[in-house]
Amino acid sequence: MRERWFGASGRKVPEIALEGTVDLEGALVLDDVSDLGAIHEAHRAGRPVVVRASSAEQIHAALSLGAVSCAVVRDEALLTLNLAEMTYG
User: CB 53: neighbour CB atoms within 10 A?
Assistant: First the structure.
């Protein structure tokens, strides 16, 4: 399981997590990555950014942004997504 820093909290979280399994307190939680301004503002402030995702493409889009700490999903099958393969073939 790959992990990322949870903002400036000093803790790491899985880059893809099942909804409800990670404490998201204090995070900016978004339904997509369309508000890049809010994402970058939160990141600059040290606030974790979490994006809800329901497809491999949405996860890839979210985690392509270094400011995003975690993508949360409802479908357990998405937990095994190979992002390196999606990115580099």
Answer: 28
